[in-house]
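Q: I'm a student working through a structural biology exercise. My instructor gave each of us a protein and asked us to get a predicted structure, then write a short paragraph describing it. Mine is DUF1206 domain-containing protein. I'm not confident about reading structure output yet, so if you can add a plain explanation after the tokens, that would really help. Here is the sequence I was given:
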Amino acid sequence: MSFKGAVNRATGSRTVESIARAGYPVNGVLHLLIAYIIVRVAFGFAGDADQTGALATLADQRGGETSLWVVALGLVALAMWRLAETVLGLHPGEHTHAHLRESPLVNRLKAFGLAVLYLALAFTAAQFALGVGRQGSDRAVGLSARLMQSDGGNLLLVVVGVVVAAIGGYLVYKGVSRKFLGDLTVPGGTLITVLGVCGHVGEGVVLFAAGASVSGAPFLRDPTRAAGLDAAVETFGQARFGQTILVVAAAGFAAYGLYSFALTRYSRM
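A: Happy to help. First, here is the predicted structure for DUF1206 domain-containing protein. I'll explain a few features afterward.
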């Protein structure tokens, strides 16, 4: 059996699909935690308003170590499915012979990008579970400062920023156009549609701002701007009506978190 055939056989398993779906509520919880931290920041409390901050919040709870391992495993499960989509194209679980399809390269690249993101988050969650992941945005700032010492490092920061901004822009487009409804096995309904639109647009705007901040850091010679989501939240907070903007951003992340719970059951696989 060929490699693609073996991957196709795996995605045809209901057990494998169920394990992959278990990653969606994990993703939902992380988004809700980020929303919670953004609200705290809006009202003057300290915190890293990004995935690292969400994992730190989880680590501080009773049974945090166990929860972090659950998060890591859930994200790995989602990553493995995205890697399967990288090989077979989107929604391989819907096709008995997905390995024989011709799938657009752009779809497989998007799936690969998500797989890398989920694996990176899973690795960070595992670090927290082992007690070695609490550097937060300070680590990102330190890494950015080192990268700024070379032309290649500056170029890398610009590229990363542009990619993140592009992802944010795509999420906004996906939300406004309601293209996310094509990822569902049901028509959607009012509640899921509202959560999907608000979640995609809200998160997309913040990611776009984060990407712009990262790509602008080398030109401003300011490594603190390369702290990703946390830097974007700080920038929003300093703007006029910053508190209101942050509360709206938190609502967007919370909406995406709740939408992720709906994906547990209704996502096309």
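A: Here are two points you could use in your paragraph. The chain has eleven helices and no strands. The CA atoms of residues 63 and 69 lie 10 Å apart. It's a good idea to check both against the output above yourself.
Q: Great, thank you!
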